[in-house]
Write the structure tokens for this entry.
Amino acid sequence: MKTEILNRLLLDQKAKRQVALLTHLETGAQSLVYPDETHGDLAVDAALQTVTLDAFRDDRSHIQATPNGDVFIQVFNPSLRMVVVGAVHIAQPLARMAAMAGWDVTIVDPRGSFASSDRFPGVHLINEWPDEALTELDLDRRTAVVTLTHDPKIDDPALQVAIRSDAFYIGSLGSRKTHAARLKRLKDAHFTDDEMARIHGPVGLSLGAVSPSEIAVSILAQVIQNLHQKEADEAA
Amino acid sequence: MVESDMTGSTPGEMSPLLNDDDVLNEAARWREEGRTVALATVVKTWGSSPRPVGSHLAIDQDRNFVGSVSGGCIEGAVIHEALEVMDDGKPRMLQYGVTHEMAWEVGLACGGQVNVYVEKID
């Protein structure tokens, strides 16, 4: 690998560009392949380009046999995203733990006193109403959404956007009673049972978690479980 | 290796060596310091193997390494091969498979098999 290719790859990752590194496993020739561009000394024909685009979509690195020999396609998609609605106490350990696990975390809370950089140093904060913020964030199939305020004014608009997005995981904090009331409100707003079934509530794996950190573990564990379940389903 | 500082830094930066892109960052930093560096990448797995396709291990000429291509089972052997790759500049494909648990050989006790591609960064 040329140092130039490595440095360019790292810049792409920093800029959150979708890129794949293609390596010819006999000659060592390499190219960086983007959705609309190629850079490097490995020739990439239309067929290989198509296979690479599929690999982006499936988020799956693999060896591809070609007429000229085996090529390893390594996909570097931008980090998985976690959008946390509610800059509450639990969000503090959750943001740190999720970042450790490689997630790109965004916290949305219209209340500026909650979503402050003092409380969340280094975390991407959005001080807007969640329906606007989540619409702008363009929730895709590599995004998880977790609502934590258990305030209907803030959580409900977020859930309404999330339910109709491609987000692979939606979780909502609150007791069984709170969750039942939430579902009733969504039903009154004409959401279907199938749509509402997408919400994990009460949020998190059942660990008997008590402290904010423990609850954060149970939420992150459930998000990861759903991520890999989704991958297994798609591979099947 | 950099010790991770859990208290004084922001979440995005607090654990510099946990993820695979961090291994690549470290490899690039080593190159900037003028070190000789090889990169090992898991390119194929069969059965139960501890690290997925795309996992990286970066090695320098003094056998410093970051990242992993297994749970520690084959790193020693990969580092040995990486030194050869640094010498002659030729990439290599390594294959490791199942070993008998009690044997003193290099392999994966978990019963899996991995192919690891090792290249020099030059």
Q: What stands out?
A: The two ends of chain B are 22 Å apart (CA to CA).
